[in-house]
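Inputs:
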Amino acid sequence: MAAIHSFYIINKSGGLIFYKDYGSAGRMDTNDSLRLASLWHSMHAISQQLSPIGGCLGIELLEADTFDLHCFQSLTGTKFFVVCEPGAQHVEGLLKHIYELYTDYVLKNPFYEVEMPIRCELFDINLAQAIQKDRVTLLGR
Amino acid sequence: MIGVGKIKQNTNVLDKPLSRGKQEVSLSAFAFLFSELVQYNQTQVDNIAELERRLEDAGYAVGARVLELLCHRDKGNRRETRLLGILSFVHSTVWKVLFGKVADSLEKGTEHEDEYMISEKELLVNRFISIPKDMGTFNCGAFVAGIVRGVLDGAGFPAVVTAHFVPVEGQQRPRTTILIKFAEEVLEREARLS
């Protein structure tokens, strides 16, 4: 049983640059995933304005009854978020690890244009390994 | 007043001893620099063969200098005259200095007398690079092929050096092979010396 339903990366203007779903629970077709990405981008931006305390960087965790949404925003405004089952542990660590994979296998790739959809084989391979390892450790606990 | 005060030591940079140099360089820094090198050359060319040639030429310049430096620093100014000597020099010493480890394997080609192959599971320069499908067999290892060609040319062993991806069973990522094809005169000289 997958802890993570789906994984999204959106660029600083809100466009979806990477989408991967794991298991049938989170599956979405292309248009829906694009729509959700721009929806999340707007909500994230609005939450920064809504915050009663200044210096808010945006939503990090959204808890609903059937899923959790964890979001990590890099200093450059690129957002990495996962939709996972409620109560999943250590997702923050996983997101930071995926950010490292992004900086390695996407940004150091000369054939990748920044802010464009990600089509890097090495990133896919390493991302699958990271999610698999995470799934194994979760089941082992 | 001019002339008053400490006299500046004007040591000529050529008189200073050659240092061992920093043994370690940041991999990320190199990866970004190499990525920029490839992107810059991509803007200057129209096709993939040109891009490979440019990367090779960039590597050639590195190879020529690395040969001079290593001959002075590591080998005490001894010159290799035999084929196997220069090949094991490239396979071990040059690889160790540039990539931190010796190359995975050195093989003689079975089909032709003048072909030798240095293989590596994954070249350091290719570690973070994913070639898009529409670029076919392009390999950024052409840079390393250029380095090898520069070393061999400078040592007096002219050769044509190319980098190829070799698919391996059971592994997702193909191996990289640097194919070295020596010129006629090298083989003739080698035959004379044996």
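Chain A touches chain B through 13 residues (CB under 8 Å). Flag for discussion at group meeting.
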